[in-house]
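Subject: complex prediction, re-run

Hi both,

The earlier run crashed halfway through, so I resubmitted it with identical inputs.
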Amino acid sequence: MFETVTFYVAFFLFIGGLIYKIASWFRVKIGRESKNIPTSRRITSSFRGVFLTLFSRKILTLLRVFVLDVLLQRRILREDSFRWIMHITIFGGFTGLLLMHALGDILTSAVFPDYYSTLNPFMFLRDLFGAVVILGIIMAIYRRSIRPTPRLMSNVTDHYAILIVAVIMISGIVLEGTKIVSYGTYQQMVDDYGAVDGEQEERSLEAYWVSHFGVVSPRLKEPFDAATLDQGAELHDMSCVECHSRPQWAFTGYGVARIIRPVALWMDSVSIAGILHYIHILGCFVALAYLPFSKMFHIFASPVSLLANAVTEEGKSDPATKATRQAMELDACTHCGACTFRCSVGVAFEQIGNRNILPSEKIASIKALASGKRLSEEQLRILQEGVWLCTNCYRCTVACPAGINLQDLWFTVREQFLENGYPEYLVLSPLSFYRGLMRGDIEEREYDKPMTQARESIASVCGLVDNQDVLTLTATDGDLHADLSLSAQAKTFSGCFGCETCTTVCPVVSHYENPKESLGLLPHQIMHTCGLGIRDLAFGSNMLWDCITCYQCQEQCPQGVAVTDVLYELKNLAVAHVTAKMRS
Amino acid sequence: MRFALFLGCTIPARLPQFESSSRAVLKELGVGVTDIREFNCCGYPLRNINFKSFALSSARNLALAERENLHVMTLCQCCYGSLKKADHLMKENTALREEINTILRREGLIYKGTGEVKHLLSVLFHDVGIESIQTKARKTYEGLKIAAHYGCHVLRPSTVVQFDDPVAPSILDRLVEVTGAESIDWVTRLECCGAPVRGVNDDLSMDLTRKKLRDGSRSGADYLCSACPYCHIQFDTVQSAIISQGESDHRLPPILYPQLLGLTMGIDREVLGLEMNQVPIDGIEGFLSDDLSGAEKQTEA
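This time it finished cleanly. Structure:
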């Protein structure tokens, strides 16, 4: 009764969770474009998309992807064969157990009328599936905790997933072992099914089960004489053999049984088997009820993501469908870390320390944000830095075993972040090249915003360039000389004698009719401010950010001043200086 | 002869024809390439904002190639410039080197400075050699005029990149001439393509590109040839924008060097990805001739 009630509670929580999560795919808004699309339109466009796909030639693509990527998990294999073995064992073993053990009385017995969980081949297969899952779990623990993988992050959801599967599996196997040795269970069975008459027969059958089936009896010990065993065997053939294969076939449980023999009687007396039974089934119910909210939800979302992305044509997809697809993709992520491992700029995390640079962490933060979690200003700022610090190389998207179009997700979110109004200095770097190429996809009036915002923010802190008063030529603060220390080249500014060759050969300077107005200070003037140590004058100049790093100035300087390298360092220092000021 | 092929971020994502054509040409010339999947960004885009991240990114790539005992070959001027710069810094600044190596050791890597960084063009010119390339020619261009674009980051700062003479470079011109084409003289040939500030200051970026296209075209070139993904994309996309706006005074379709060379080697046009360029370049096949004497004449000249 208790079990039935708990099962139904868990089952309805599971169904409710499933509905809630899937509904969120149509509700969660990611990116600016999705803001104005009502849920109803997202639902209709998605159903229309699914319908049209199913009745087109794309159904063949779907079938192929379902077999190769969903069932055989080709995309994981491509990335990492170790992980493939790990995942396919857990996936395959668990599926086997679900169909043949958890749903054994419903499914297996419908297909095989002579199904008994204690009969071969079912008993052996159950243990085989279990052993295979255990192997996968050991590999998973090894991967997460022991094997050195650069920048692989594990969080609570990863540990929960491993833990819940481990609890279910281990409790199941120990339970099986406990039942093999249990005298209480044996007696119960004899009472229910045993056709034995009198003390002598009881002892014979018991002796047979002690010697052949691993039961630990409080009164009988091996060895037994041949006559007793013969009689036991006869009785066994009459009452037991129809439903019981030898326990050795249940090799994992039998192994446990061998180990626990010395304490078997005690375990029986405090009914450990009962406790294990509850741990086992409650573990299953917890896993079931919580599944839609755990990373195990990927069982549903990842195949959907793989299938949807396989038939999505870049640029042709309806914005309403795209919004739904991106919301669904957040659930498809298993936090496996394949994207982070392949990320082109992931290594920058080691210097900058912002987890959101790593795609696997970035998508987790975006998921939290999309689900309505309030992030602090600082959290938003580092997430923004994370989404902009990306070379748009597509490697994360190519690597993702769940087929998530991560690249597209970053791009969508990037534009949305502009609304928060925090300046992002990374836009003033070649990382913006891709955005420049994608200009057509961005609303024209939004396009210049991030660049203007970043430049204005720097100017607001280092605004001496716009100062119309006469400046006193004393250092504004700190030791600019000492700060220019990232490379030996940056110290060369002191050689400048003001010949202006750098400014004369600069293609940026010659691009403008009135360069001083557009660029602030010109290259030779910037070298001069470095000499004077006037930090804000050097940092506030647009010349820094419009420098195309063509190195003409540096190549031609008669004094060997590494002009471009000095500008590079000033950019670094300016960003660090402004960031520190803004935060204080 | 074997190199670790460093593709960087842009080529696999946005210019696969550069990769396929380079691989085909290198194969034809007997140059082996090893792909190191762990390679990351060269660090170039991080240099403005976080210098040490740039140095770390570059050094990690160098360390990965060192582990395989291979020299690095890049197909990109900006990757080349960055890797060379980082290599230079790591050799010059022991404190930085120690700091970077501390991080690299965490993933079992170390930068020792034993590897070299080369560009596709320097491999073709120095390691393969003009004569070997010539022996592979099955066809040659006749009457084709090419504006050879070097790209800033292979030329300068010359003390660091050591690619060619920064004032009068000739490697790319010689490599163009081996195909039978004429490498024309043009005023802006050593100037920037505009890509570094694309997305930061588009007016400036496009203006620099237009200037070069106009100059090359007025100097009589039929095509502009480069061997850098940033430069090529910049020329290709700006050019197609110009075409769509109906301007016509400076049309100069860009072609990647391995595409130009590959056609004379008789490599399949699909492999060279001729159709993948935004501005059509298939007209160039009209310049091809089976008479090989033309190329010899160009090379002698």
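Chain B touches chain A through 56 residues (CB under 8 Å).

- K.
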